[in-house]
Amino acid sequence: MSSDRLAAVVATAREARLRAIAPYSHFLVGAALVTSDGLVITGCNVENASYGLTMCAERVALFKALSEGHRSFSLCVVVADTDKPTPPCGPCRQLLWEYCGDIPVVMANLTTVTAELRMQDLLPLPFDGRLL
Ligand code: THU
Q1: 37 in a domain, yes or no?
Q2: pTM higher than 0.85 for the full model?
C-alpha cells in the first residue's frame, strides 16, 4: 500500500476514534480494516456499565465487515491517543487471526504511526481451525 493510501486509512481510523463511547475508561480507540477490494470499514470501542460487555474498536470493525459480507482483508489500523503503540487485546488478536489471517496491523496515535506488526508476530502459535 502506498504511504499516501496508508495515511488516508489512518486518518479514517482517527475519525472513527472520535465516535468511541468510552465514558468509563476515557480511552478512545479507532480502528479501520481494509478489505481486499479496497473498502475501509471502521470501528470504535463501545463501553458498557457492566464493563465486561465492552467491545473493542477492532472487533466492532471486524464484525461490521463480516456482517456486511466481507471475507478477505489486507490491513488493520488501530489508533489511540498514546505515545506507545496500542496493540489489539488477546480476544481481538484471536478473531483477527481467524478472519483476516496474517495481515499487517498498523498502530498509530493522533500524529504518527507508532508500530507495525504482522498478525503472526502478535499471535504466535495460534489456536485455529487447523488444529481441530
Ligand atoms: N480497547 C480497544 O478498543 N482496542 C484496543 O486495542 C485496546 C483497548 C478499548 C477497550 C476499552 O473500551 C478501552 O480501550 C480501555 O481498555
Answers
A1: yes
A2: yes
